[in-house]
Design brief:
10 helices, six-stranded mixed β-sheet, Rossmann fold, about 20% strand, globular, eight-stranded mixed β-sheet
Length: about 325
């Protein structure tokens, strides 16, 4: 069963928790809050938003409690994760999935938040959103494309339609032709592989498999996809969408294997043999622009026309 949160209305409340890494400068939190408030929304911060424990934002129990508070608080309309980094998977065993199921809300985050996207979909069927965290929504490097797409994804009542290409680099490569309509799931490839063997291991059968990653050289991406192939996870995939593989190609800064395959070589080796529609190059990931997309709703993937269209509403009116 698919669960959906409700469309974000003007003046709604954004609940913010930090299930993964902590802030570095306090302004990372303040800038995000001011951005939401500047667009007419209210913001409620979790009690431990400024907690720190080395590379995570406090204990797993505390981070899970903060996340649960946002789902069960009737004043909160959407749950915005502070950022990725590391640590979301540590919270999963402490979450109350029955309570989340009873209080479905849009959850937004990317990168390490993939762990939560995966677990929430497995345990509740909740549609979640792969988009920027609070720390990145008003960073000095953030593009208007990223901000506008986040607002559009959370405030649109109907289907979001065709996923836009990067306005500065609109080339999309096809690794497989044909057309398929199916739910799209996935996230950061490294985090998806970390879920292998858990109760919430991603189920890609009959799905369009979306993935992206950052600073993972070709032999890492090769290893991740090989592990998924050997585990049988790619056997019944019906389509593939590869977002940005940011800083993943070999470069002088990472010279371990100068005779390395390229990223596209690796995709040719693992994606083309699947024989399904497959596209590479959308602004979905760790690049300059991030197009917020829902995970768990039906999309139309056309490998011949090189288009990806979200055909199912991601939120209830």
């Amino acid at each position: 069963m698919t669960l959906k949160g409700r469309v974000l209305r003007p003046g709604g409340t954004i609940g913010v928790s930090a299930p993964a890494s902590a802030y570095h400068n306090r302004s990372e939190v303040l800038r995000g809050v001011e951005w939401w408030e500047g667009h007419g929304y209210k913001v409620k911060l979790s009690r431990n938003i400024f907690a720190r424990d080395a590379y995570v934002a406090g204990s797993p129990e505390g981070r899970a409690r903060d996340l649960m508070d946002m789902f069960t608080d009737d004043e909160v309309d959407v749950v915005h994760c502070f950022q990725g980094g590391y640590g979301s998977a540590q919270t999963i065993e402490h979450l109350d999935f029955d309570a989340i199921r009873a209080n479905p809300k849009a959850l937004i985050g990317y990168s390490d938040i993939t762990a939560l996207h995966t677990a929430l979909r497995h345990h509740t069927g909740l549609v979640t959103f792969y988009g920027p965290g609070l720390a990145g929504v008003n960073d000095k490097e953030t593009k208007k494309f990223t901000q506008e797409r986040l607002l559009e994804a959370l405030t649109t009542e109907g289907p979001l339609g065709e996923v836009p290409r990067d306005p500065e680099n609109d080339y999309i490569r096809s690794f497989g032709g044909g057309t398929v309509t199916a739910p799209m799931v996935g996230g950061c490839l490294w985090l998806l592989c970390q879920a292998i063997g858990t109760p919430w291991q991603p189920d890609l059968a009959g799905k369009v498999f979306f993935f992206e990653d950052v600073e993972a050289p070709p032999w890492y991406i090769d290893g991740f996809l090989n592990q998924m192939r050997q585990a049988g996870m790619l056997d019944e995939v019906v389509g593939v969408v590869v977002g940005e593989l940011e800083k993943c190609d070999w470069s002088e800064e990472r010279p371990e294997f100068p005779q390395s395959l390229s990223i596209e070589d690796v995709l040719e080796r693992y994606i083309e043999p699947l024989g399904v529609p497959a596209l590479y190059g959308y602004p979905l990931g760790h690049g300059e622009r991030l197009c917020t997309i829902p995970l768990g709703v039906s999309v139309v993937l056309n490998g011949d026309e090189r288009s990806l269209t979200i055909e199912e509403p991601a939120l209830l009116e």
